[in-house]
Design goal:
Elements: H1 2-5, H2 14-36, E1 39-40, E2 43-44, H3 58-73, H4 88-111, E3 115-118, H5 131-160, H6 163-176, H7 186-206, H8 210-225, E4 241-244, H9 248-251, H10 261-278
Length: about 290
Amino acid sequence: MNVIFRNKERQVRAGWELLLVVVAVLAVTVVASLIMSVKVDSKHVFGPDGWPQVFRSLGLYMFLVVGLTVKFVHKRPLSSIGLTRPDGRRLLQGCLAGAALISSVIAVLWVLGAVTFTGDWQQPQWQRLDAPDIVVSVLLAGVCEEVMFRGYIQHLLGRRLSMFWGVAVSAALFSLAHAANPGYSWISALNIVLIAVLFSWATIRTGSLYFAIGLHMFWNLLQGFVYSVAVSGLESQGIYSMQLSGSKWISGGSFGVEGSLITTAILLIVCLCTLLRSSRKRSGRIPGPR
């Protein structure tokens, strides 16, 4: 019976450990949400919107649970999952790459007539931005999801199995984590897997999470808070107003541009170029932490 739960090195099998971590994240999130829902004299102590939503965010507790697991269960430093000494250059490179990538998608959709801009480019509507929403959708999503999927899951499976399984499983789980979002479809599922592969490539190539974090943050930031399109199916208000129209196969429908076949094509091209470029430099296994 013990062999079901432990491997030959007497470690808890990766699948069981991942399940326990996910359950812990969900449990802590539920407890935090209950605390944030407390009422006094029939009135909520914390409002449903604004900054309290930061403390209801799943991402915040992903970071907490993963950090504690790495430090106290694995007894490893956070650098072992890619949170090395802060690297501003890699972070900036990732931010620029994310901005360029999502802007190229918007540009192609605009040429095809699937994106309509309303308003004046010279008059950005800064008052439409919601700071707590940006923190949740950009900062927490970019940092905490990378720590969870590329940092923890990818490195765990990479050490126990191989680089292939580390990338494949983390990408699949990353996509499934968005399955409850409005408008999720097989196209958006594929696109999220593809962008996850790019995040994984960046993590493996640079040896840290910072490029992937920057790429993730600015992919979300420009989508929702510059171009005003849905981020993974979640509506956002940006400084410019854009509307998606036409066939949902092209526009992405209610999921936003992440549900578009144009995004699929662009991500496939970028993935193939980056993977081919680095294929000779990669081994079949993620090296363990030094």
